[in-house]
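Case study 2.
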Amino acid sequence: MGRASWEGIVRSRTGLVILAVSILAAVAACDASRPERSAAPASTQDGHPAEHQGGAEHPTVAAARKPAALAEQLEQYYAQHTLLAVRQMRSVVTATPAYRAAADAELEEYTEELAQVVGDRFGDAQGERFEQVWNQGIADFSAYAEAVAAGDTTAKQGARSALLADAGAYGDWLAQASKGRVPASEAAGVMRTHVEQLMGQADAYAARDYDRAYRIERDAYEHMFAAGTSLARAGLAPEQAATLDAPVAKLRAGFAMLLGEHMQLVIDAQRATFAGAPQFHAAAAQVNANTAALTKGMSAIVGPRKAEEFQDVWAEHVEGLLEYSTALAGKDEADRTAARAEMRGYGARLALYLSDIVRNELPLAPLTAAWGEHDQHLVDQIDAYAARRYDEAQEMELEGYGQMLGVANTILGAIQRTVTPQLPVGGSQTGGGGTATWRR
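Prediction:
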């Protein structure tokens, strides 16, 4: 398509997001204990999902040793699986077989890893049964998307019935795996919501109702993130499960959900550079909603007056990412180089501010390096996407998403040691906001 361009990043009520994003990325430099001042960014934590490097056929997932680590694993796998399934279904609707092949492969690998996590917690036999149920759901989602693409109402109804049956099978599985702690009807209801959301977004996307499609996508992500927490709770003894309801645990989950969501929605907006204004408007609206949710929560930590210092830099950050993808789409190497150079300048300014916010609890050099790593993930994935190296784009997407979630505990530790957090747990229900608009 012709060159798409962007401007008008809304500069009000967006600054607080940068605090969450930047510190979260930066604390990849630290482990769950008090950080060493000379520490370099690290990439793993106890019980985190396996890194997808594209070379290992069957990555091994480290078993979670603590309730919080189990919750983190299942939240990440459930939420990310939802986005993989959404994008796979859209590739079917748009007849993009190369992207579908990459998504299919990633879904298969992700399901194997998720089944390992389930097996570690509920036993090997239950892990195998879970994998069967989950794979059937993936096949039926694909069948639904194929029916939507073909305009085949009979096949669509058949796939819908199959998916609702899959939700029932999931409920039966979890009731048995949890030894009755979770009623089958309750678990099936959670999965029916998931099924309805993914079918709904596919219908909306095919009808070019992009506002609805992207809004449902975000709701589906948040729903399954919470479902991951619930599954972790079902696999724990009552006293351990109760720890996931503690305020600090809810704070961690809410913060991680919104930060991971932020990165994924930016990816949507970047990729929409290649799809035209209607899709971009829809994707940007969800970036805005996520920004508002983070802003409302983070304002309790640093206050609105201090947050104003973020506003211009945050706008530049988002605009820089979109300018980069615009130049990429327009094959303008000069603008692309300039956008990338400008992006590198944001890290130092943000790191200095953020180090001050947490009273030098996190050192400046790792903060700067980690912010650059966050940007690099986004640059690498859009480069690969533009070149139709979809498998590589997905690797960067998953790696970047894992980084954002994998450092949630440490950032909360830094904040709790230096400020008094009062962050409410929640997602899209917490308000509206803005970050991006289309330049005409």
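The chain is about 75% helix and 0% strand.
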